[in-house]
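Troubleshooting log. The previous structure file for this entry was overwritten by mistake, so regenerating from the original sequence record. Sequence copied from the archived sheet and checked twice against the printout by T.R.
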Amino acid sequence: MKKNGLLIVLLLSLLSCSNDDSDNKKQAVAAGYYGTWVQYTEPRFASDPSSNQFSYEFKKDNTFSKFRLYENTHTTLTGTFEIIKKDNVTQFVLTYKEYNSLISNCTNSLIESFTLESGYLVDDARACDRSYVFKRIY
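Regenerated output below.
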């Protein structure tokens, strides 16, 4: 009887120790994306000041900063981000703390999103003629 009781306790303890890896998977997905991403443009447009005015910094605490330097004016926007990986597509979804016209989207909301394509972040607002692309520098 003692052996059966021990076997039941062992079985229950093994079943109760299930591991929810969802947070670990999110962190593993995001690990290669932390750091600074700068606006990328084709070399033929490199001398145009508007083609390299934006950059992003993604931090390990899932916060980000968006920087704009244009005509000697510095602007910084902040918020939180999530990286979603589904069907071999990696998407960055950024949520800003407050509205600003520099948020790139088609809906005037607090959400901005990018799709990772061949190592570049491509602005999902391209559907409404925004064509920002970013490259990770570190």
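The domain at 21-136 is CATH 2.40.128 (Lipocalin). Archived copy saved in two places this time.
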